Amino acid sequence: MARAAPADAAAAPSPAWIVVARQELRDLWLGGRGLPLMIAFTVLLSVITYLTATNQELNFLEQHEAVSLTVQVAVAVGALLALLVAADAFSGERERGTLEGLLLTPARRADLAAGKLVAAISLWVAALVLSVPYVWVLGHGVGAVGKPVAVGAVVGTLLAAGLTAFGVIVSTFARSNRLSLSVCLLVLIALFAPTQFPTGAQQGWAGELIQRVNPITAGEHYIGKLIVDGHPWSRDESWLVSPVAAAVLLAAIAIAIAPRFLTLHGSGWR
Which of 160, 179, 205, 225 is the most exposed place for a label (fewest CB within 10 A)? Predict the structure, then answer.
């Protein structure tokens, strides 16, 4: 016969980071930007899916390429939305004059950062769920649904984790919310810039090195190889090294290191 749990154990409070995450999720989804951002994301995917499926100028795309394009856009935009929310994590509190009250709570600063990080990543999770019907519309005829969604979930989660952690780090030190958003967007543009290089510039050892080191281009490349070329998961797994490294390293800095320097006035960045 199982023993009943002690009363004090049953009433044990939730860890501080979970409490923070719950509050941040409520603020984001019930009265914040979560729903409007997801509506905009849905409109964007709808337009891309419609053009990909019907526009004659895009009909040269093979169905697997169309699915890959949709997944890559969903991953990129979903991670971008999560980054925008993360960039507001502490700099926004600082501008609104609510950071002092937050710092006076019993929660450790690492718990504050972890809770805000979880809330920001929830935008990517919502974007992933919303992208599934679009992938099904484009890929169900050729059996390209399960694998594209799975690889999108893996790569997107890694990129979203890395970008949101970077956003929290920048927000910790930035004096203003505008500065935090500007720095994050500038870095994001720099990461996406190699995707616009001519095909010739992306070939050779130098071009491949740039793509492998950059977590954005490495993740997008991995998605394309699995969906378009039909490669097995393990064949190109080396392309996931930089996304995994970025996610782990930046998350560790955002939670364990950066919060130690969190102040009411930032680091002096202007």
Answer: 205
